[in-house]
Amino acid sequence: MAISRLQPLFLLLLLRAFTSLPTQAAARGGQDPSEDGGHGSFSRNLLEDKPRITEEMARGYMSNAELETAIHAFGSRCSNISRVYSIGKSVNHFPLWVIEISDKPREREAEPAFKFIGNVHGDEPVGREVLMRLANWLCDNYLKDPLATLIVENIHLHILPAMNPDGFTLRWRGNANNIDLNRDFPDQFFSVNNDVNHRQPETKAIMDWVKQEHFTASASLHGGALVANYPWDGTRDTGKRYYGCPDDKIFKHMASVYSQSHYNMSLSKEFEGGITNGAFWYPIYGGMQDWNYIHGGCFELTLEISDTKWPKAAELPVIWEHNRMSMLNLLASLIKSGVHGRIFAADTGRPIPGSVMIMGIDSKVSAGRTFGDYHRIVAPVVASMRGFRSKSTRIVLEQDQAVSLDFILDPDGTREQMKLPQNDWGCHCNNHKLFHIHESHLWMYLLTMSLLLTLYVLFKRKMASRLLTYRIYSPRRPVAV
Ligand SMILES: *[C@@H]1O[C@H](CO)[C@@H](O)[C@H](O)[C@H]1NC(C)=O
Ligand SMILES: *[C@@H]1O[C@H](CO)[C@@H](O)[C@H](O)[C@H]1NC(C)=O
Ligand SMILES: [Zn+2]
User: Fold this and answer.
1) Radius of gyration of the chain (CA)
2) Interatomic CA distance for residues 302 and 35, integer angstroms
3) By percentage, how much of the chain surpasses pLDDT 90?
4) Ligand 2: residues within 6 Å at CB?
């Protein structure tokens, strides 16, 4: 057993010795090859990770106990738009506290969920500080600032300020077992992390969380560089080159939303536009980002938000300011673009957890169990579910405009043989409420249609021919149907 498990690792290490090593000692992140004897970024146990963070440097940063207090203080101060919960415990039994922010934080809604994770690496503490500032900013500006209000009302935002509190206390990269958590996830190419018994509790907590919450997108925060990194993080043969996932375009777009909204990330001399494909920068294996996309349908970015891993605490307010619009715009882009809708069974009228797929893109996004809601960045889409005939549609999307699109699928007659997943929120699914929600969508369509019709009639004389040209030839100038 052990031999077949380890073979890929040996092969990898061998290959690694011959491939060029990354020059950056980065965050996401490889260790400096000069530090770990040339094993590159793959070794699970960090061979040498000397604590170099002095008490002086740590001054001004919240300790874990202070962070915990701040999280609970936030929870009571902003209790009507937040909920505090824990997704598990670290090796040294510190709770992994999460703040959920939403106008209905204790309820499930047919809305996209987003997660921010900070302090994945113990010696990269900027994320945990910035995330607390984000939470507080949203709370302070809800119903005052339109962007804050938009986010609170349309997204369920989950913030885990510290994924690796033990590493923070130890002032090193890995967790208390000195394992790099961003190498501990099951990998698509190599099986070294497949043994559940060796999985770290922090990793397990994230994996369970992702399976439970139906996140649409997410980002983890790191330090040591200034760039928005997107999948894939690794290549099959460990070669260092651009290796895009099926949703490459969408990821580039997401990463650009972040870098372009940042104070100066997009001005990077090292990374064009301030974004990079992970494997192009340097391949890593067992990372959290690729696992999220593959197993959670969650579009995750890895954000390097400060050149220095552990800057002086006095710089934190400036770093937060530099990242504020990026974080807010990334969240807003979830609502302001893409296709959102629900999938229903025609016979029962109940929401079903089918999946949607964009023609030509080899990846599926599944709908939520409770409401059958899906949130997909861009179109055309096909809704499908085993036991139902698939339905497809064609829509043209305007940039920065979201489209709402529900599907009602007809059973194809094979459904008796399969057990439909039970809706775990029965009380919310009484038919009255269900059709009420659906009816409101119908009204929205009718309203949009009549609006379009009126516009058309109004401009018919002058613009008829031009409008037609637009509809047919210009992909940017769309008509939503
Ligand atoms: C939260 O509290 C504020 C201030 O009391 C109130 O204006 C607002 O409507 C509340 N929001 C929600 C979602 O309950
Ligand atoms: C961005 O600004 C920071 C702070 O002023 C500076 O240290 C960093 O070098 C700048 N980076 C780029 C890519 O311009
Ligand atoms: Zn990192």
Assistant:
1) 24
2) 23
3) 56
4) 226, 264, 267-268
Question: The tokens 């954000």 sit on which residue?
Answer: 303
Rounded Cα distance between 285 and 278, Å, is 10
Each residue's pLDDT tens digit, 219-252: 999 999 999 999 999 999 999 999 999 999 899 9
CB 166 within 8 A of CB 42: no
DSSP 135: H
Residue type, 470: Y
In 3D space, the residue among 219, 291, 298 whose CA is nearest the CA of residue 261 turns out to be: 219
CA of 124 relative to ligand 3 center, distance in Å: 6
Domains along the chain with CATH numbers: 25-336 (3.40.630.10), 341-376 (no CATH), 380-420 (no CATH)
CB atoms within 10 A of CB 253: 17
Neighbours of 388 (CB within 10 A): 23
For the segment 189-215, what is each residue's pLDDT rounded down to a tens digit? 999 899 999 999 999 999 999 999 999
Catalytic residue chosen out of the listed positions 202, 304, 315, 321: 304
Nearest by Cα to 306 from 119, 67, 113: 119
Contact 108, 117 (CB under 8 A): no
Listing DSSP states for 230-269 in one string gives ES----TT---S----TTHHHHHHHHHHHHHHSSSGGG-S
Q: Coil, strand or helix: which one is 324? A: helix
Atom index in ligand 1 nearest the CA of residue 152 equals 13
